[in-house]
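Today's session is about reading a structure prediction critically. Students often jump straight to the picture, but the first step is always the sequence itself: look for stretches that repeat, for charged clusters, for runs of hydrophobic residues. Only then move on to the predicted structure, which in these notes is written as discrete structure tokens rather than atom positions. Here is the chain we will use throughout the hour.
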Amino acid sequence: MKKLTRFVALLGAAGLALAPLAATANTVKKVDPKSKVLVNATQISPSEWTEAADKLITNLLDSDVLLNIENPPAVMAISRIRNDTTMQIDIDSLTKKLRVALNQSGKILTTTTVGLGGRAEDPLAKESAEYSQFMSGEKQETKLPDYTLSGKIQESRIKQGRETLITYTFQLSLTEVKSGLAVWEAEEAIAKTSKRGAVGW
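Below is the predicted structure for this chain, in token form.
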């Protein structure tokens, strides 16, 4: 009986000792997307991507390019933004930030019924417009955008001793559909420095 009591007591003590460890292992720490906290020094945080995108959009809106059309505001379609880095980047989320900023500017409107390969971002809106034109007997015409916005994100690494300089460059280009010429281009670079001993490279 004494052995059984001692065994139960030991189990209870072990449970109490392991409980804090289990709680600690499952603890999730929230990070404000707008904060400057770095989860991984070699990765780009959401706030850094947002800051780079904001700078590029401000550069575009401050230029006079969007004013050179007959019937403002200009209509723009967002083309492909390519990820040429080793990172997994949510391009759709990044594209959405660009679209929101541009539409809120009042200088440009983005279309969701024209997309790469004829695939619309909003198929329902495209089908509704086509159905409305069909029912009214109007000639079906798809309004082409005045501009398209494309871009890519590049990565370069320069090693010197135990340190590696990692640079992520976010590039955007605005093309005039009528002429096929790039009428505006800009880029923003984000640099990180990493030591080999810290990350095991």
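Discussion point for the tutorial: Helices lie at 2-25, 46-62, 91-105, 123-136, 196-199.
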